[in-house]
Design a protein that fits this description.
about 230 residues; about 60% helix; 3 domains; alpha+beta; six-stranded mixed sheet; 6 strands; 5 helices
């Protein structure tokens, strides 16, 4: 039974929460120097709520450390370790299934590419250029498939078909049935910003969202053909 692992885990979590409390206290101190009373009051209320939540978490962790030292969490640790083993096996199974699907897509794409190479040849020069462009796109497509983040694959399984992500220029749509009369929404995560593409019957909208801030409309374009 590896109690020390959990001792280190809980102590590190306490240190992290204490560090966050210090940083948040410094931030609210600067905010209180502003002259916008309504804004300061709103931010202070949020700060107090977050502070109370973190302090409660610290107390819970300290209580767990006491319980740990007394051996009262041995059964909990044993159960968590078993759960972790089960979760690891499930992840390995999901990884294998994902690789099988990727291999299947590769095979299908390879077949499509090979068929394309054999048709529509207008000239040797044009054909060589087409082959080169398609092969580069095919290589890029398969390379991107192997780098799709786990959270995207997981979320796509629970997303309707009118929502999804853009990953390295490739549009990925949800696996569930499309939501009737709902807009199409695609998320494009950049380094410091989330770009949200949204289509309705008449318009194409682009929003930007930074962190937990509200999304801001960047552009609105009328669609030539209403759907």
């Amino acid at each position: 039974m590896n109690r020390q692992f959990y001792v280190n885990k809980y102590e590190n979590e306490i240190k992290e929460l204490q560090f966050m409390l210090i940083k948040e206290a410094e931030s609210i101190k600067k905010i209180k120097e502003l002259h916008d009373i309504e804004f300061v009051q709103a931010q202070n209320k949020k700060y107090e709520e977050k502070k109370k939540d973190k302090e409660n978490k610290i107390n819970d962790l300290r209580h767990k450390l006491e319980e740990l030292e007394q051996g009262n969490l041995d059964e909990y640790i044993k159960k968590e370790m078993n759960d972790n083993k089960t979760e690891k096996r499930e992840k390995e199974k999901l990884k294998i299934e994902k690789q099988k699907e990727i291999n299947k897509i590769k095979k299908e794409q390879s077949s499509i590419s090979n068929n394309f190479y054999q048709t529509g040849k207008k000239s040797d020069q044009e054909n060589r250029k087409n082959k080169k462009d398609i092969f580069k796109s095919w290589v890029y497509y398969n390379k991107c498939l192997n780098t799709i983040p786990e959270y995207m694959l997981r979320n796509l399984k629970e997303m309707p078909n009118n929502k999804g992500y853009i990953w390295k220029g490739i549009y990925l749509f949800g696996e569930l049935e499309r939501e009737k009369d709902k807009n199409t929404i695609i998320f494009d995560k950049k380094k410091n910003i989330l770009i949200i593409h949204e289509w309705n019957k008449y318009e194409y909208l682009i929003y930007h969202k930074k962190g937990k801030e509200k999304k801001e409309l960047q552009s609105r374009t009328l669609r030539k053909i209403a759907i």
